[in-house]
Amino acid sequence: MEHTPATAWLVEAADAAQQHGSGNLLRIVLVVMVLGCALTAWFVLRGYKQKDD
């Protein structure tokens, strides 16, 4: 079994992350944006509820 220093592993991980791009970050941003829009719509539309008193 070959021993690789921690710095070599970090360099390889950084290279792999750059090759994959920003896919995970984009997914997180899109999910947060959709949830934020849904929450905002709920908050705004609940003010239009009419009371039948």
Describe this structure in words.
- The chain has 53 residues and is an all-alpha fold.
- The protein has a domain at 22-47.
- Helix content is 72%, strand content 0%.
- The chain is built from 2 helices and no strands.
- The radius of gyration is 23 Å and the shape is rod-shaped.
- The model has no long low-confidence stretch (mean pLDDT 78).
Q: Care to give the gist of this entry?
A:
With 53 residues, this protein is mainly alpha-helical. The protein has helices spanning 6-20, 23-45.
Q: Which SSEs are present, and which pair or pack?
A:
Layout lengths: L5 H15 L2 H23 L8
Keywords: Membrane, Transmembrane, Transmembrane helix
Please mark out the parts with pLDDT under 50 across 5 or more consecutive residues, or reply none: none
Shape: rod-shaped
Category from helices, strands and their pairing: mainly alpha
Number of distinct helices: 2
Largest sheet: none
Percent in helix: over 70%
Give the CA-CA distance, first to last residue.
78 Å
Approximately what portion of the residues adopt beta-strand conformation?
Answer: under 5%
**Could you report the average pLDDT, rounded to the nearest whole number?**
78
Transmembrane segments: 25-45
Keywords: Membrane, Transmembrane, Transmembrane helix
Key descriptive features of the protein:
about 55 residues, transmembrane helix, transmembrane, mainly alpha, membrane
